[in-house]
Amino acid sequence: MVRKNTVLTLGIISIVILLTIQVIITLGVWKQKDEMFNLRYRLYSQDALASMSRKWGTDGFDTARLLISAYSASAVKQITEAKSDSAIQRIKDDALFFTEKVLNKEQDLSPYLSDYFGRQGVDRNFNYKVVINFYGLINGDKRIPVYVNEEFASRRPVRPDTTQPRTRIAKRRPSPEILVLATRSEDNNYRLDFAFLIDFSDKKSVILKESAAYLSLSLFSILVVVLLFIITYRNLMEEKRLSNLKTDFINNMTHELKTPLSTITVAGRTLEMAQIRSNEEKVLETAKLIGKQSVHLNQLINMILEISMWERTQFELDKKKVQIEEIMNDIVTSFRTGCGNCATLREKYSFNGESVDLDPVYFTTLMNNLLSNAVKYSDREPEINIEGFAQDNTVFISVADNGIGISKNDQKHVFDKFYRASTGNIHKYKGLGLGLYYVRKIAEAHGGDVTVSSKPGKGSIFTVSIPY
After folding, report:
1. Backbone angles phi, psi at 86, to 5 degrees
2. Are strands 127-139 and 142-149 parallel, antiparallel or unpaired?
3. pTM of the model
4. Which of 132, 238, 288, 420 could cross-link 433 (Cys pair, CB 3.0–4.6 Å)?
């Protein structure tokens, strides 16, 4: 258990470390792709600006500047005539609103960029915005600040001789937009610093497509590692289970073989005693005991040899056409007599007179194993119900007992070779773990199957199906 938990813990830690490394690398790749995307469009934008300047001698904002200059002159005049601070502030707000509107509407840069991107074969659909960093009015030698961006103000503080302008709070965080143009305009009426930025709504999908190969490879490698860990862990647990089965089998086989051998040894020593040899009845009784234990010992050895033979070769059945109800009656009667009425046996058949091709010897072994187990694994007076019926060219035979039952986990392995259900690794009942293995092998050799339904403390139901 300690080794199992250690392997599981180390495996989980390794997978977590791998996932962490992959996430860090993936984030790095994503950041790199994002920077490459921005750089690519920044370079295209600079080329577009240079081309626009060569062709038209403008950056696309000449019309906007003329309108802003005219409006600024009017705003300066209104401020000069204003009678109160609130009126002055309202004029400034109107001037800022007009400036923002004109910069966004009366510009030729965005359509030119879209056309240029299209000629370069890259995505031409983008969003744009104009960000005002500083806007101020000029009245002769007097400067009247209207608006200053907080971040811009931290880089270029307002001159001491001016009044404090209206400031817009801006969060300082990495911007997803691409800076295309940052410029300053100034004439007799105003001074304006602004930036033109673009961004792409499908930027993430573009980066995702570019990173698809790496992401797929990364995901595949993680899945492979997890799969290999699961397979390795399962193999380790299976190896441990088989090792435990082998140990249990050796212990059980030693115990089973030791019992008849000890009895034969004791009986042999008994025969050496003079008082026993002179008593013919005692000699005969001891001889019968030796014979009985010798037969039992021989059966155990033959069982192990047969198992070995079955592993190397296929079953060789000697099938005969037999009435299934007739052979079932014979098997149950023989078992009842052989065990000395050791259990209450009830039979209920509805085979409708069907005959089945089967090997009578092996089939008898199959049923005897099920009946023996029903008696052996019972902690009360055994009661066994044997039922059978024919349906869809198949005969079904169930053996239900009132024994100790089988846990759900043990039911998965109960037909495995050498497997024996136990509680706390203590086997209370004798056996080699071969009986139900025999049952399954014989059923499968006849083209059928065997299943189990059980609850601990409630007994078990074994159902054998054989086609005919």
Report:
1. -65, -35
2. antiparallel
3. 0.47
4. 420
Q: What is the CA radius of gyration of the chain?
A: 47
C-alpha closest to that of 233 among 23, 464, 4 = 4
Provide the token pair at 264: 């034969």
Q: List, in order of start, the domains of the chain with CATH numbers.
A: 2-210 (no CATH), 214-312 (1.10.287.130), 320-467 (3.30.565.10)
